[in-house]
Design goal:
The complex is a heterodimer of chains A (about 110) and B (about 120). With about 110 residues, chain A is mainly beta. Chain A contains no helices and eleven strands. Classes of the chains: A mainly beta (about 110), B mainly beta (about 120).
Chain lengths: ~110, ~120
């Protein structure tokens, strides 16, 4: 039973480029969450998605960031025109149908913006 | 709004000894869930233990147990018989029972287990 998959594990981008982070939830999980961890800090919630719907995006920066979870395929976190301050670890988590369930995390994507 | 506070940035313990990590939280939710996650040097986030606020009994998972004091809004983690593999950053987190799905994390406590 595979866990949450994230790719790439490491991503290097130059300022102004686009970053696409992918997340495949655990089998049977239809809820996906994205978190960001800056160096030496805890995780900060960004967005909560179910299939084809954004449920809560209160933690997403207003500009340049977007997320989707299509009917088929992985969830995508997209960062346009990256800046150095976007350098961080981005974690995806998933949970089963019901809210309040334990969230299981993927290994994270380390984004470095040069 | 929910907040989670871990007041111990760093702790150390001798191998085989017991250590307790502190966590306090604040929430307006009537029902909620509390978690401890472990982040070893690999940076993977690993679930250690989960507590449902409506359950009075403290959760236990092998060498890990919690002391859940609902009135005091305290949720400490006790690690018994500490092992070198327990060396990691430990995060306390709170999840409301609504549909938001937003886990609120504390700042983390770095635990060093010494041989």
């Amino acid at each position: 039973n595979a866990g949450v998959m994230q790719n790439p594990r490491h991503l290097v981008r130059r300022r102004g480029q686009e970053a696409r982070l992918r997340c495949s939830p655990m089998k049977g999980h239809s809820h996906v969450y994205w978190y960001r961890q800056l160096p030496e800090e805890g995780l900060k919630f960004m967005v909560y998605l179910q299939k084809e719907n954004i449920i809560d995006e209160s933690g997403m920066p207003k500009e340049r960031f977007s997320a989707e979870f299509p009917k088929e395929g992985p969830s995508i976190l997209r960062i346009q025109q990256v800046v150095r301050g976007d350098s961080a670890a981005y974690f995806c988590a998933s949970s089963p149908q019901r809210s309040g369930e334990t969230q299981y995390f993927g290994p994270g994507t380390r984004l470095l913006v040069l | 709004a929910q907040t989670v506070t871990q007041s111990q940035p760093e702790m150390s313990v001798q191998e085989a000894e017991t250590v307790t990590l502190s966590c306090t939280y604040d929430t307006s939710e009537s029902n909620y869930y509390l978690f401890w996650y472990k982040q070893p040097p690999s940076r993977q986030m690993i679930l250690v233990i989960r507590q449902e606020a409506y359950k009075q009994q403290n959760a236990t998972e092998n060498r890990f147990s919690v002391n859940f004091q609902k009135a005091a809004k305290s949720f400490s983690l006790k690690i018994s018989d500490s092992q070198l593999g327990d060396t990691a950053m430990y995060f306390c987190a709170c999840l409301g029972s609504g549909n938001t799905g937003k886990l609120i994390f504390g700042q983390g406590t770095t635990l060093q287990v010494k041989p």
